[in-house]
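Checked the freezer inventory, then went back to the computational side. Two predictions to log before the end of the day. The first one is the construct we discussed on Monday; recording sequence and tokens without edits.
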Amino acid sequence: MTEVVSIKIDGRTVAARTGETVLRAAERAGVTIPTLCDDKRLDPAGACRACLVEVKGQRRLQPSCHWQVQPDMEVSTDATSERVKRHQNVLVSMYMADHRLDDTGLPVETAAEPGNALRDWAKSSESLPLEPVDAPRVARPGDKNPYITFQPDLCVLCARCTRYCDEVEGVNAITLTDRGSATTIGTSGMTGLLDTTCELCGGCIDTCPTGALVETKSLNILPRDVEKVRTTCNYCGVGCQMDLNVKDDKVVRVTSPEPGTTLNDGNLCIKGRFAYDFIHHQDRFTEPMVRGQDGKLHPTTWEHAIQTAAEGLKRIARKHGQDAIGFVSSSRCTGEENYLVQKIARAAFATGNVHQCSAT
């Protein structure tokens, strides 16, 4: 049974629950602890070592993402512990030595969502001037998939992407391959994602903290350059929540809400995350159209379009009977709109030939 206990973080009393980690208790109390490999959807790994804290009575620094709270535990972060602060300054400097930096000496800004965690961490740290590391980390040669780009020089090997692919998707399309400084995110035989079990859900993009994995179509669009609009995915009846990233009145990317805040827990499928080109497609109808005597579609008014459709349906029903008519609605419609379609089918035309592709 879960119990509420009291612990101290940087001398401040914080309420925590038995079984939860120090990191979660600190987050709820508004205490910032840097981390790269943490994701609420994944089992704690303690891989990046960024979240180490000092626990009274423990000889070594402990990973707050994995260390569970105990009653009356006393924890010190970099705000009160020189030992932790020294560790973090050295660690972030080592990461930066093996990372692409911008002109200011910080990790480059990327399209990572919600932001480049390594860059944010470096801004708040006192980094050391270490010599750059010439690591031979490589990408997958010849990977021509149209959605996901891997930039190996931005990877910190936190393994969030590989763990997500395993623990959440259950696909295991990517993994840590090679050894030592040559370790990289690879696939079986280093083939392209289209030749693996990858479902191209883009979850690896969503969980990557540095932008090493990013959407190809919006490779150079930074989070600060867009306005986010929360909406519901229109492809099926599950109702996944997602954020449309809008720039210059155009949807340029779809991202996930923070895990734990919506019913889909930040997860999206390939259609929800990548299939948004139809919004601004040149072939999309933007006004009612009616086919004329020349066999071509011509713009018209809504009143004329509805009247033409109604007359055509009644004409078919009179000539061939009610069952010659079928109604197909869309999961892109609202529930109310789909209700009206089936009402027209059953009440107005006395047919049960009505369907929409939503799995509701």
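The second is the one RB wanted added to the comparison set:
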Amino acid sequence: MTWTTPNFADQQSFSPQSVFEAGERNHHVSNTAYPIAHEQTWGPYRVGRAQYRESLQQAFAGIDNLCLYAHIPFCEKRCSFCEYTVVGRNELNQTQEYMNRLYRELDMYAELLGPRRLWGFDIGGGTPSFVEARLIAEFMERVHRRFEGMDQLRVSIETTPSIAANQPDKLVAYRECGIQRISMGIQVIQPDLLLLLNRDNNGVEHHHQAVANLRAAGFDDFNVDVMYGFAGQSLASWQATLEHALALNPEAITLYRMRYKLTRISHQADQVSLDQVRQLARWAKKRLAQAGYQANPGKNTFTRVPGDTGTSDYISRRVIEGMPYLGLGLGAQTFTHTTIGYNDGAVGKNLLPYFRSLDAGNFPLQDHYQLPLVHMMAKMICVSFYFGEIDRQAFHDKFGRTLEQAYPAEIDYAVAQGLMEWKPRSLAMTTHGEDHFSGLCALFHAPSVKAYLLGRDPEQAGDFHKHRKLALRVAG
């Protein structure tokens, strides 16, 4: 396998101690969302549009097994904490037009790649259950025709409490077309915080009916998302949210720490300290363990099903194996062994660029990067940290070297400081490492990203303000 030659910025080396401290200082941006300072650190590796098809063919050559993600960018409302690609209010009536383009993109990639086997498939957003159920069923049927392995997959979809409570026929339709897993975002339950987050239409009055409907539809693999780390969110408030989630008795509960970049409330980031975040996380993990939900240190999805990851096949394969995945839809990401691409709409969050590319017969890529080894390894490790550990064999299989060969100084530091420990199959976070998640992530970033963190003063950084202005503009 051949990777792009790194530029000068990605051939530097830095003291693990200084990088760890920089990650801790910049805890709101140093996390699993890799890379940081995208234009600065990845910009030199951008591929021109004229080379997209050739680059994609080379990147997918020899990849017989992959995952699939389909992005549906519509929502009832855009939540104030949302960093994802969601279209504005004036485009919510274009679901049929959007799905037609999504079908077209699927066909284009299927023709480019030929027969491939899927090992994971997620339909996310946005809120994919916003669109008519028949459109989801038609898309499922098209994927069945284009890829192998669908009969063995645990396909996952996302919904909201209000949709699940008020449109039970959609849930029945999902099960009938082969979707086995569903995830529902509760996030928080306090009315004042829900109102602040522009999520007051998904309050607790919907939750129990939503769960009853999805159970009646036949879903026995159900995840609930909850969020912490908001400005003004007290420990008591967080405790009430988690207790409520436990009372719904899902198979899995996923804890998401608020990430402020690219959101309409990014200006509140400096109101939330690392100590506050740690307090909320520690209590939640202790309470979940008491309730029979298990996860190793660093893992953010807790499950009560023995031997199960609690996540979809798509997430599990990505996290553990670093399996390549094809992303379809507005702003979706595609990941191979040597490249990463982002679809049209990832920045502007509107449908027109995506529509234009597909209508012209072009792959709807906004940015496509052929990356050096240091960035591809960093991306895999950041994703691995969703489960709190790096699979040693999977890393070696993907990159042709051991973790010790790739990161000798960083691993020596992490192990000596009690942040990580060797296990038979993995290099895993300790409980101490979990408390220092941001610094630990930074250790494995590529040199150009480390340099950015080392030079970034969180007290003076203007990037949150810039991202908030963008988020407010595209939200409509």
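For RB: Residues 51-316 form a domain with the TIM Barrel fold (CATH 3.20.20.70). Residues 464-476 have pLDDT under 50 and may be disordered. Let me know if you want it refolded.
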